[in-house]
Amino acid sequence: MGRKTYEQVLGFGDWSYREKKTYVFTGQKEPLLREKNVEFVSGNVREFTRQLKENTDKDIWLVGGSQLIKAFLEEDLVDDMIVFIVPIILGGGIPLFDRIGKEIKLKMNNTERYESGLLRTEYNLKPT
């Protein structure tokens, strides 16, 4: 999880990831508030991911904004992606995919539409 996303999720109330080990990528000193099972990390995402994969057989979830997503996509560390489309045009903000510098082909696996208009779309980035 990126630090900005972490701080935003803290503002939602109860910590949603209480039962999951969470790693928060940050280039700054640790935020003031640390939730249960949260560890702050910095450095090379490829090396971090390699070490993490050596110590678990579970899926690794990436939750974050454009900077964190960019770092993982540039290193080809994303196998699958779930994108939620909210039916609101903001008129500004931070791009989800900001200057990755290469084309990445996506294969749609599933979509789910909700009554609210929210759309959940799943993609595969790695050929199977």
| SS element count, helices | 3
Give the tally of β-strands.
5
Q: What is the radius of gyration computed over CA atoms, rounded to a whole number of angstroms?
A: 16 Å
**Share of helical residues:** 10-25%
Tell me the structural class.
alpha+beta
Features:
alpha+beta; two-stranded parallel ribbon; 128 residues; three-stranded antiparallel sheet
Task: Give the structure's gist in a few sentences.
The chain is an alpha+beta fold and 128 residues long. Helix content is 21%, strand content 21%. It has helices spanning 3-10, 45-54, 66-74; strands spanning 22-25, 38-41, 80-85, 107-113, 119-124.
Write the layout of secondary structure elements.
Elements: H1 3-10, E1 22-25, E2 38-41, H2 45-54, H3 66-74, E3 80-85, E4 107-113, E5 119-124
Parallel strand pairs: 1-2
Antiparallel strand pairs: 3-5, 4-5
Describe this structure as you would to a colleague.
This protein has 128 residues and is an alpha+beta fold. Helix content is 21%, strand content 21%. It contains 3 helices and 5 strands; from the N terminus they run αββααβββ. The strands form 2 sheets. It has a 3-stranded antiparallel beta sheet with strand order 3-5-4, with no helix packed on it. The protein has a two-stranded parallel ribbon with strand order 1-2. A hairpin with a 5-residue loop joins β4 and β5. The radius of gyration is 16 Å and the shape is globular. The model has no long low-confidence stretch (mean pLDDT 87).
